[in-house]
Amino acid sequence: MDYLQKARRVIGIEIDELKRLYDRLDNRFEQAVRLMFETVESGRKIIVLGVGKSGQIGEKIAATLTSTGSPALVLSPLNALHGDLGIVSDGDVIIAISYSGETAELLNILPALKRFHVKLICLTGDTGSTLAGQSDIVLDCSVAKEACPMNLAPTSSTTVALALGDALAMVLLEVHGFGESDFLKFHPGGRLGQTLLQRVTAIMRGEERMPVVRPETPVLDVLHAMNERRAGLAVITDLSGKLAGIFTHGDFVRAFEKDPQMFSDPVDRHMIRHPITIRSGKLAVEVLNLLDQHRIDDLIVVNEDDEPVGIVDSQDLTKLKLL
Fold it and tell me: Which end of the chain is more exposed for a tag (fewer CB within 10 A), N or C?
């Protein structure tokens, strides 16, 4: 038996079904996003229903929505018939997941839900099903075949439903303007979350490790200062102590290639003016954004008066396992 061939068959079938989902997305998806966004913005809830494998997919979708700024709850249709309907309020949005669209436990709860004047979005493989007919918005999760060799076990269909749920959550994330700092507020656990939620001052090299020179300082003296502090750059300040520029090891190499006699030049002849900076009160996660956005290795930390107070070195971030 060729295990790899069989595994690739499964993955290939699911890829094909995801492509079909990609191709058939239409304005109903947009309607679902708008409805969910308006619901969350008005202080209402998103409630996810499903039974069996669809229920497990629903749990993942609800968890992803909740962790990315769109609070969602999971409601068991069976428990809902025995008191758990108390979590439902007027104006909530229900996401019902059923591939057949005929799941009895789910259909049985719909009349009771309708009394709350909720809106119903369904994820189903049969757009002509009873569930689809009862829904305000129908999202097609149909598949041509399951990845199961017997075409029985939910495989492709659950992958498609999960992908559609991820798409809803990620588009909502962008509509909400949900950023990395928001994400970290919801994921404070672990070393990464704890580190990124710290202020820049917690991860920077302080003034005692920051070579500071004046614009007229000769390049040779600047290199000595960098070597003494074991820094890859020097910070240049003006008479008032404000940041005037930086001089990096890369700047030295480029200048030396052009003029090997440049050691006596004042550093301001070769320095980078107006370097990228970050305020000392910002979160560490914003350092990563700036380094990635500008493709730089070091960042100068300044106070409210634009006076340099530290350096963030990408080598330090690597040691902290942030890069």
Answer: N
